[in-house]
Amino acid sequence: MLTINKIEKTFLKNTPNELHALRGLNLHLNKGEFVTIVGSNGAGKSTLFNAISGSFWIDSGSITLDHQDITYMPEHRRAAIVGRLFQDPMKGTAPGMTIHENLALAYSRSKRRGLQIALRKKETELFREALSEFGMGLEDRMDTRVGLLSGGQRQALTLLMSTIVTPKLLLLDEHTAALDPATAEKVMDITNKIVAKDTITTMMITHNLNSALKTGTRTIMMNAGNIVLDISGKERESMTVPQLLDLYSKKSETELATDRILLAEK
Is 260 exposed, middle or buried (0-12, 13-18, 19+ CB in 10 A)? Predict the structure, then answer.
């Protein structure tokens, strides 16, 4: 499904601030896998997501999605097959437009159809039905401007916008980190239901080690622009957070930065 082959990315080459962000990284995901990603700040997690979504072109290597080479595919074209959510609930939506209009834009972009077609009654009913499953009452606020929604409501809407037409790959970049615990749990529940329902191949960055081990089917840990640990199956099921930290230290020959990660772990 997703194959990343020896990708390299260096920013500010040949300057005092040169940063080798991705170092020959290899990764393969099968269809329907849900992979959680952890690592210290600067490990390359978001850089990996940016490379996949096309925010920049990699220096070398290749990225293949569903047998299609997307290495140098423009970002706007990848947006039709790669959904992405950010930590900031303000990203990914047009705050001055209504819930209905935002969903119509997302639907028409993914379907490569005009906005007028997306606004047909059939699609409107599709949006309303999908929103009702969130249990937030958003289906009754279709004409509300998105800028008036709470952070949790907005993130739920962004999640729906990213999956209203099932993407080939869903990237979740700490998408619950800016929410209060109760809202974060609700958005995560919605995420799991959508991913499971449509068998969406998913990658999720998180700083919560418990969540990393309990969510999805596989956990990878990154350090210095590469993957140093990849666990799944029975090994992952029996893994505890202390064991994960110890294994990471042995593999990377360094301790995992404890600023955000251990504060998130409970």
Answer: middle
247 in helix, strand or coil?
A: helix
Nearest to 110 by CA among 160, 167, 53, 156: 167
This prediction has a pTM of 0.90
Q: Nearest to residue 261, comparing CAs of 242, 238, 236? A: 242
Q: What is the C-alpha to C-alpha distance for residues 213 and 37, in angstroms, rounded to an integer? A: 10
Between CA 204 and CA 87 the distance in angstroms is 11
H helical segments located in the chain: 45-53, 75-78, 99-111, 115-118, 121-132, 151-163, 181-198, 209-214, 233-237, 241-252, 261-264
For residues 10 and 65, is the Cβ–Cβ distance under 8 A?
Answer: no
Mean pLDDT value across residues 144-150: 95
* pLDDT given at position 249: 85
Q: Please tell me what DSSP assigns to residue 248.
A: H
User: With bands split at pLDDT 50, 70 and 90, how would you rate the model's confidence at 251?
Assistant: confident
Q: Per-residue b/e over 145-181, b at no fewer than 16 CB within 10 Å?
A: ebeebebbbbbbbbbbbbbbbebbbbbbbbbbbbbee
CA 15 – CA 64 distance, rounded (Å):
31
Mean pLDDT for the stretch of residues 169-179: 93
pLDDT of 28:
98
